[in-house]
Automatic annotation (TrEMBL):
InterPro entries xrefs: GntR_C, TF_FadR/GntR_C, Tscrpt_reg_HTH_GntR, WH-like_DNA-bd_sf, WH_DNA-bd_sf
Organism, as annotated: Enemella dayhoffiae
GO molecular function: DNA binding; DNA-binding transcription factor activity
Protein name as annotated: HTH gntR-type domain-containing protein
Domain of life per record: Bacteria
Matches recorded under Gene3D superfamilies: GntR ligand-binding domain-like (1.20.120.530), Winged helix-like DNA-binding domain superfamily/Winged helix DNA-binding domain (1.10.10.10)
The HTH gntR-type domain, residue ranges: 7-77
């Protein structure tokens, strides 16, 4: 007979607190019951509560503050943490630039098309800045792409691409990028922004596809498609 394992007391506490935060949609900064109160409420020892809070803090769902004004407060996970982990996963799995390009060609043209349809007035101001830009700094190249995802109106798409911010920056090979390359990137970003501002969904898709296809060709010409996505020299 297969015996099912009883959950640890700390697992029960983790589930109870996580459910409370998510089901009640508790905002960041909301004070949760103290360790003593949680232990009494859930019928467990304080050691189990302390272990559960450590796990929840690791996952970015709570913050435990010490001292007179301390307590247990709600947090929401930050995409920066997720992005760091994904970057490490890509590095350990030897993910290639070819895979990265293929992924982006699948998603980003659709994101641009949706952005042209759904961008809010505030988001359109961001594209107006990109459309008027005289040049582009390598450090800010990801910003246009992430702004497009955010303006798509699809939270899954936006979160997915925002969680890849670190791989976006860590795959660059600065020594191979010339001023002419940056100018071409700037021109492509301007075209994409203009099509989004015009509400031209098919045009925005074409502009993004053209931009990413050019990026793919650039990488192929330099023999980098089979290279690791994460450039460890950037770390």
């Amino acid at each position: 007979m297969i015996m099912s394992r009883l959950p640890k007391a700390s697992d029960v506490v983790v589930t109870a607190i996580r459910d409370r935060i998510l089901r009640q949609r508790l905002p960041v900064g909301h004070r949760l019951p103290s360790e003593v109160e949680l232990a009494a409420e859930l019928g467990v020892g304080r050691v189990a509560v302390r272990e559960a809070l450590r796990l929840l803090e690791r996952d970015g769902l709570v913050e435990v503050r010490r001292g007179v004004t301390g307590g247990v407060f709600v947090r929401h996970p930050e995409l920066g943490q997720v992005s760091d982990v994904i970057s490490l996963l890509f590095a350990t799995r030897s993910t290639t630039i070819a895979e990265w390009v293929e992924f982006r060609l699948l998603l980003e043209p659709t994101a641009a098309e949706l952005a042209a349809r759904h961008a809010t007035a505030e988001q359109r101001e961001v594209f107006a800045v990109h459309a008027a830009a005289a040049g582009v700094d390598l450090a800010y190249v990801p910003d246009l792409h992430l702004a497009v995802a955010e303006a798509s109106g699809n939270s899954v798409l936006a979160v997915s691409l925002e969680s890849l911010r670190r791989p976006f920056t860590e795959h660059f090979r600065p020594r191979l990028i010339s001023e002419a390359d940056l100018e071409a990137t700037s021109a492509a970003h301007i075209r994409i922004s203009e099509r989004i501002l015009a509400g031209d969904a098919p045009g925005a898709r074409r502009a993004m596809t053209r931009h990413l296809t050019g990026y793919r060709d650039y990488m192929e010409q330099r023999g980098l498609m089979s290279a690791p996505l994460i450039n460890l020299d950037q770390r």
